[in-house]
Structures are given as C-alpha cells and as structure tokens.
Fold each of these.
Amino acid sequence: MTVKIIPIADIRYASRVPHVPAQIQTPSGLLADTLGRPLRDLRISVTDRCNFRCSYCMPREVFDKDYAFLPQTSLLSFEEITRLARIFVAHGVEKIRLTGGEPLLRKHIEVLIEMLAKIKTTSGQPLDITLTTNASLLAKKAQSLKDAGLQRVTVSLDGLDDAIFRRMNDVDFPVAEVLKGIEAAQRVGLAPLKVNMVVKRGTNDAEILPMARHFRHSGVVLRFIEYMDVGATNGWRMDEVLPSAQVIERLQTEFPMLAVNPNYAGETAERWRYADGGGEVGVISSVTHAFCGDCNRARLSTEGKLFLCLFASQGQDLRALLRGDFSDEQIGGAVGHI
Ligand code: 5AD
Ligand code: SF4
C-alpha cells in the first residue's frame, strides 16, 4: 500500500503578507523592482486547472484525480482581480496577460475581460489584454472573447502530427480542433496571433519544419520555446532541450532567415524573419540564455500571490490585503514597496 504524505508547509506556496506603509505616496507610474526593472507586464492566472496533461507542465502522475486543485473560495474573484489590475495599472502596468492552467476553463472569463477592458493606462490608452490558451475551447469562444475586449491570443501548440500532438497533451486531444480554434481566432481578429511550441528533443523536434511551413505566410508568429525545468516533478533532462540556436539552424536548411531587432527591451523572444517575406518566428531561450536581467514581468497567482520571478519561491499574499480592511491606496502603497 502506498502512503500519502501531506506536507504541512509546502515551500512552493510559501508567502508573506506585504507590509502596508503608514505614509502612502501617489503611484508614480514608474514602479520598478529591487533590480530597477520596470513593471509593464502583469500575468494573471485565473485558474490552476487544465484539461491537458502536457508532461512538461502538468504531468498526469502528479496532477491526477487525487491532486488538490484550489477550491473556488481560494481563487481571486473577478472583482478582486479587477481591483488589483487597477492598482497595478496606476503603477505603470500596460499589458495584462491572462493565463492558467487553461484560462478558458474559468467560468464566464468574458465577464472578467469586459471588466479589465474598461481600465485605462496612466497615459490614457486602453490596456493591452491578451490570453494564453491551449485553444481546445477557442473555436467556440473566439467571438465572445473578441466582443468582450480581448485583443490577441497566444496558442500553445507543440506539433501538427496528430499522434505526436495527442501524446504531448496526454489526453488524446486531436490537433484538428486546435487548428479550428486558431482559424476562428484569426477570423474574428484576435490578431496578431502567436503560437508557442515547446520543443522537446526526441519527442516533437521533428515538428519544427512542418510547423514553420504551416504558419509561414499566415500572419501567425510561431515561437519555439526551450523545454524548461519548471519544478522537480517533470523529470527534466538537459539532453531533451534543443537549444534555440539549433532550431534556427534547422529552419535555415529550408528557409533563409534574417535576425530582427527586438521590439522593446526585455522582450523574451529573439526574433527572426523569413528572407522571402513569409513572416516572423521567435525563439525563447529560457535555458540557454536566461533573460532575467531585463525581464519586466510580474505574475499574480490564482490565489492572489504576487511573484516577481517564475522561479521565486516566495510570493506576496495580496489576497490577504484585498480581503483585509485596506483601501486601494494602502494596497497600492504596499505593492509599491515590494
Ligand atoms: N518548458 C517550457 N515552456 C513551458 N510552458 C509550460 N511548461 C513549460 C516548460 N516546462 C509554457 C508553454 C505553454 C505555456 C502554457 O507555458 O509555452 O505554451
Ligand atoms: Fe500546461 Fe498549457 Fe499544457 Fe495545460 S495546455 S498542461 S497549462 S502547457
């Protein structure tokens, strides 16, 4: 018989409640972290659940029927998310990306998007709102997401070969449905669309060229992501990482490629374009070129903890402030001191 051990304190979820300063300064719109990196980009996780079991992210041995997903009361409500979004926007955030798990599994996500779409940046512009999805529900939801005020989507897709794709999502989900979702998103104008492909050497690296051929001349920006170690649970091995430099070499064997200058400082993807005008691709070298130095992202977890780094073990418990007796100014002041 296997014995289940329930940890009393799990370091992954360690957090502290941020200090609320007695003297509150008006947000300058120039919030930076202790390394002086400006925060422009906030990722908000709206659910910890996913209907896929990609082995590099939610391996089914860990995320099984006994896995304790968060109860509804632990999740930030739409009102709480919107309140925090306003506070962050006052501090200079201009772009919000909704993530998960799979964000389209959160009920009535369109309502949240409508609420966020009303927020204006410090320079009076509409917020840039995007969403990262596995596209399993996108064909059905693209129009309502667009109508709610979503601007763009990024779709995760690890190959075009149906057998390889079904193996990677590990729930036998067919690639044709994802492609329908991508088409629907393009049709309703959730553009420019990005497609993220996590490359695992020996698993889906043979899909690099077919993916490039498929998305050239389509307006979709295909991005190849180095397979990362996101915790001790997915059996990460360096020999399964295909360095981005080799991805570009493989593309070069069929298509002449030219390097493109970055859009902005802190951009995580290195950009390349097809010399024949077929469009752009990106490579994200999370393993071979860690880009922490000029990263400008913050991440808000499903239960309201703020992380300034994907690998940070300690989050700041903003939910405790939201559910405590604090004003927006006080919470904004606390965020300004993180
Ligand atoms: N390595 C690289 N990217 C990952 N993602 C999740 N886990 C990993 C990993 N181990 C990224 C993928 C996916 C998004 C939801 O998260 O890009 O598209
Ligand atoms: Fe993770 Fe995305 Fe795969 Fe879901 S679809 S398991 S969130 S990588």
Amino acid sequence: MMVRLVMFSTKPYDRSGFVSAVESEAIEIEFLETRLTPHTVSLAADATAVCAFVNDDLSEPVLEALVAGGTRVVALRCAGFNNVDLDTARRLGITIVRVPSYSPNAVAEHTLALMLTLNRQIHRAHNRVRDGNFALDGLVGFDMAGKTAAVIGTGQIGVIVARLLWHLRCDVIAVDPFENEHLTELGVSYVDFDEALARADILTLNCPLTAATHHMIDASAVGRMRRGAMLVNTGRGALIDTVAVLDGLKSGRVGSLALDVYEEEGELFFEDRSAEIIDDDVFARLMTMPNVLITAHQAFLTREALTAIAGTTIENVLTVAAGGVSPNQVELGGQPA
Ligand code: NAI
C-alpha cells in the first residue's frame, strides 16, 4: 500500500534530504511550504501521515481535523514535541513519532559557537573589519578557562556541551534530575538550580520545554543569577521569560545573551523578513543590544543532521503505517478513548 506523507513547513534544505532518503516505492511525499495551522490542515486530507516541524500547530483542532481526514501518524522531524497537544493525541488515538536523536553534536557545537562568538564578539569584529574599522574598543572578552559554566539538562545534547566546556577547562556544573556518570567521572558536579544560578558565569539551557521548565528563567531567576553572567538558550524559546531577561540585560544582571530559539519565533523564524517591519518590540529591542546574539533556530542545521532526520522520519512513518510500533513514538500514556 502506498503511504502518502504530506510535509508542512518545508524548505529546500529539508526537501533534498527527504528526496534522497526515499528509496522505498511505498511512500509518496508531498512537500508544502506553508505551516500547519487550523487554516492549512485541510491540505493534508487523505494523507496517511503528516510531517511537521517545530513551529507547526498540533493543537486540538488541528489534530481533530487530521484524524477526520484519515491521518494516522504525525511525524515530527525534530526532537522536541512541546507543540503537540498530547492529551488530544491520546484521546484521538493518533500516533506521534519524532526524531529523538539526529545529531546532538550539531546542536552542542552550535551552542558552543554561540558562546565563543558572543564572548569574543566575533560577529561585531567581522562587521568592523569589513567596514575598514580595525579598532578594538568594546571587543574585550574573557578567558573561558577557569569560568564556571552551568549546563541545565545533561541529556544527549547537554552532555556534549558539558564535555566541550570541560575541554575548554571551564569549571562545569550541571543541573538534571538524572546524573550522567561520564560527566561526574570528569569532575562535573551536579548542583540544584539555585546554586547553578548563583555560581554560573555561563548558563546554557539544554533541557526540554515542559510545564515544569516553562519560563524557568523568569524575573526571580534573573535576580538570582550571578551579575554579568552569559545566558545561552538553544533548547526552546519558552524556557526563558524574554521580557524578564530583557530587563536583566538593561540592568546588567544578565551580562550577555545568545539565543537560537525564541518564545515568539513562530511569527518570525525560517522566513526572509528583511523587507518587513518587525512587529515584535521585545525582539526588536534585543536586536539593538551589542551583547545579544541571535540565530534563527539553526542549531540543528548540519548536513549530517538533515540526512539523519529524513532517514529516521521515513522509517518512523513506514513502521507505524505498516501497523508496527516505532521506537521513536512519543509516549502518550493510557489508552485512546
Ligand atoms: P534529552 O531528552 O536527551 O535530554 C534532556 C535532559 O533534560 C534530560 O536529561 C532531562 O532529565 C533533563 N531535564 C528535564 N527537565 C529538567 C529540568 N527541570 N532541569 C534540568 N534538566 C532537566 O534531550 P536532548 O536531545 O538533549 O535535547 C534537549 C532539547 O534541546 C530538546 O528537548 C529540544 O527542545 C532542544 N533542541 C533544540 C534544537 C535546536 O535546533 N535549537 C535541536 C534539537 C533539540
């Protein structure tokens, strides 16, 4: 039986990975540029499976429309699944699969790239030199060696971030309900969140977005951070209350900020908006600050990661469509109603 897969929010770099991954005659992919929303969900009518990305809407009305149209599988081509209404998915009996691990190195390396770029102000230095400005005023950074770096979440990505920081001879501390013994063997100590806030010169968020981690960096957390610390978020935007962090930047409590994810990124990221007025004052204010560095959710974007994402997604879809159980199914708990 031919499996029809409709893929939302696709870009040329997604499509080429999937086209080369489709060896099977049993799958036919329709690539759509549009995001999945209640308004566009009808485009997936009759599709066995729908492939979605980080900013696609998988709320109750969308899942209900998908099931009504005959869709049995939602294949996320990302690791996080915070954009899925899991209670509704369970109620409707629709299967959610994801790509839990495609290249933790890609995200960890980008996290480190952000830290080093922001610290040594490579982005500003590059622009200056291109403009014939060889002055160094305002470009003073700090040695990473000897600084305390706190990794919040030492799963697949955080563990690599912690190792990279250890190699830079940082004093690495970590926060995670589950300790990683390879890190403790290296001398990484696990501390509670408050201690990490108080001690860290560099704080990197590498945990998933859940009800418990939503706005974990809020005004209170900003107030408890070590003055002048660098904050890096490559996890999910809503781990941070951006307005609170903006206030922290203004007061100097937050020394610098690097983001690859942003709470309101759904309205901005993945599109060329260079000819538009950005209608988000918080984001626009952040962009005026010399000590803020933002990339548009690109930490995953390596050739290796794209190949792995395409391969695993197709395998996930074919397994579930054939009535099997994918090891990458999101645990929904309970039985469908
Ligand atoms: P993972 O599931 O392997 O690890 C997450 C870790 O966070 C686990 O060890 C868990 O125990 C820990 N954790 C959960 N709640 C915590 C809390 N309150 N405090 C501290 N630690 C906590 O996930 P992985 O693969 O390392 O990815 C982490 C996150 O990175 C994903 O959930 C996703 O949101 C984000 N991500 C971002 C990408 C990007 O392009 N910017 C790409 C891929 C993932």
